[in-house]
Structures are given as C-alpha cells and as structure tokens.
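Sequence and structure are kept together here, with a separate record for every protein. A complete record is shown below as an example:
=====
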Amino acid sequence: MQLESKQQILERRKEIEQELLDMLKETESDFTLDHVRDAIYHEEDNDDMMKVVAMFDRGGDASELSNVLELVTDAWNFFLTKSSAVSPRPRNCWNIKIKRDKIHDPEMDKTDIPGTFNAGATLGPVNEMNMARIWNKHKQSNNTPLKRKVFVAMSGGVDSSVAAALLKKRGFDVTGVFFKPWSPDDGKAFCNWQEDRQDALRVASKIGIPFKTWDFSKDYGKEVTQYMIDSYRKGLTPNPDVMCNKEIKFGLFLKKALAEGAEYIATGHYAKVKKAGNRYRLMRGVDTNKDQSYFLYTLSSSQLKNCLFPIGEYTKQEIRKMAKRFELANHDKKDSQGVCFVGQLDMKEFLKRYIKPKRGDVKLLSGKTIGQHDGAYYYTIGQRHGLDLGIDGGPYYVISKDIKRNIIYVSVDKKDLNAKELISKNNTWVNSPKALPINAKIQIRYRGEAMSGVISKNESSKILEIKFKKPVRAIARGQSVVFYRGQEVLGGGIIS
C-alpha cells in the first residue's frame, strides 16, 4: 500500500515514535520524545539517521517503513557508545542517564552496527562517569578490534565510492581495493582501467583510507572470460556478471580479504542483507530500478555474514547527492554499462576474436529460408537487432537456434517466444528450503518482471523444474533464473 499523503507519513512517524518510546519505557530509560525526534530527524551526520530520513522523504510503501523501527533501535545502540567519555564532540541527545543499576544482558551486543556494544553485565549504570570504564572493559573482554575492519571493492564508480565513504563515516576501519581486470593478449583493453583506478585512488585519498590494487586479471580471464566465450560457442547466453560476483568479488576477494584480517567485504551493489536468527538473508535493494540482487543469487548465508552492501538502503539519486556532499570527484561520473570485467564493448565484435564467423541460414519456423547470418552463436533468444535480413515485414525475432546446423529460426510474432516451463541446473540456495515444491516469484533476466510459478525438484537428478502460471517471453539457455519470495532472494540456477 502506498503512503499517498504527507498526513499519512506524519501519522506513521508518530506511530514509530510511540513504538520506540514504549520500548524505552520497558528498559526504564529517561529518554523523552524530544530525544527520539532529535535522533531520528536531526542527526544527519550519522548514516543510520540518514537512512531513516531518506525513507521518510521518499514516501515509500508501508512494508519499507515498517523496517524503520528496527533501524532506529540499532541507531540507539550506536548512540550509547558516544558519550562524552568516548566521543571528543558529544551531542546533547547522547548525554542521557539510565535509571537502572545494571544491564541484564550478560553478553556483548550482537548488533550489526560497527563498534557498538552492550554496556555489559555488572559494570554499573550507563552514564558519563562509567562509560570510559565500560569501554575499557569491552576492549579487554573482546578479541575483535573496536573498529571492525572492512575491505571495500572500489571500481572508481560513484556507487562503490559512496559505499566506502559511508562505512568510514559509520566507524569502520576501511581499506579500498581496486581489482586489475582482464585484458586480451594483444594488450588492447576494452576499458581504461588505469583511469578507473585513479578515480578510486582519489576517492580513497579524499575520505582518508588505505588503498590497494590486487591483480585479478588472470583469474578474470580463467573464471569469467573463458566461461563467457565457451558459453557462446555452445549456443548459450551466459551471464558474466553473475560469474564475476561468484568467482571474483565473493570468491577470491572475500577469501583474500578475510586472510588479511578483514571482518567484512563491501561492494557498491544495490542489495541488502538482513539477519534472521542465525541466518543471513539476501534482499532486493530499495531502488527498484537499480536493484542488483539478481546478480548475487549464488551467495550463501555463510558468505553474507561477511558481506556489507552499504548503498542498498538508498536510491541512485540519493547516492549521487551523498557523493556530492562527501565532495567526491567522481560524483557525476556516468554509470558503467559494460561487462563487469572488460567494460563497455560490442559483444559480437568481441566474440569474433575468439569464435570465427560462419555463414548460415536464417529460417522462418515453417522452414523457409529468408536470409543469411554470420554465426548462430552470436545471437540470443528474443534478439531482433543485428540480423540485417534486408527484407520487409519485420521486425523478426530470434525464436530458436540450431548450433550444430548453424541455423537461426525467426518469427514476426512475439507470441512464438512464449513458454510456461523451463529447466534449471547448477542451482544454489541462499538458505535451503525445507522442502520442494514451493511457490515463488521467478525472474529470468536482469530487470525482467518476476513472474509467479512453482519450483519442483526432478526426482532423477539435481535439476529443478519450473512452471509459470502465465507465459513468459524469451527464455534463453545459459541465462540465470532467480527465485524470490517477496523482497527476499531464495536462490537460483542456470536455464538449461
């Protein structure tokens, strides 16, 4: 349900204020409504407060705003560590006394906000007099660093740059890492990675964080480039960005960062991680136009516990504004539209370097030949540009391909692209379902509509059978199919 008026937003604010106050009363705190309002609406220097303000200003839907209370609760945990005994510049809203004589939780706070902790056990009341002693006790009893260490994958673009800046502002010990990408053997790179590296380095210098360059070029070539070329040669339509995330960013990068002492890695993906008990759930990003959860479906709960997506709570427009406010030189840099590891390129021209052109027939579904093509592997299901048939009556859509005979079948009727079933292989789950079949929303391409369907297991193998309630258009073998329940990514596989 959309919040249609300012009055509804104000009413929701009041509800959240009251919920928070009720929670604080249970802990016998002396917080007042003014303290709550100050923290929620005026603490602009704190990233968590920026999230709350952004949510309200955006006038998002009710389900989104229902998450604000959880966010504000985490923010209060942050405030409790910021008394004048710790922070060089205390805020008035932090100078608050707690009535109770002791805190009952015997363990440190498990909040995901960095550097925060439960004031702890029997150390006495949480006030300015005791905060320094509590902080020192925390340092003695906790082997992890007070500032949690995170390595941020910095591409030189605005998204990863703001991700790094936000984490630095939250209090993380941030290190920026740029990946040297793959280049062809002839040395003619498809992107100016040196310039991108300089942009990332300028941002790191501006926000005051260490900067590293890791050479993953051979790994990109082996795990991503060759996979893409081999897939096209087989007549498939691969998804190199999914493989890049799986093998490089959340494979090599995660492993190496943890080995060097990082507690987390972070990227500039528009996605979110939500903790549920001992599990971690992958969620869509707030910005529906930029949501990148589709590319992250191979991640498991055990990987997500070490992953941060700082910009997933924001829209692209808000990220641009933040970049400008952080005075980042790349705040107006254009978004990259290319393949993750080589940049922007003409895919057909790229493939011609590795797969030689081969003339073949273009046929109607009736079998009538209407033209020629230069290689069936260069085309994908649903494609209508680049056929150059030179005849009237189009547009013509690629309906199917016969790679062995090098034939492309086309039709002017888009309904010929429709299907209600597919087979998925190489399936992975973020968190494994208790049983199959399950109902889910199923997405077969990035930015495609998630369609309702049923996911069932084939009894004779590890493949999954997916049946849609309504026909879907242009199912392409080799592409990723991703399963959703509401905003949560359940898992996915490869269309077979």
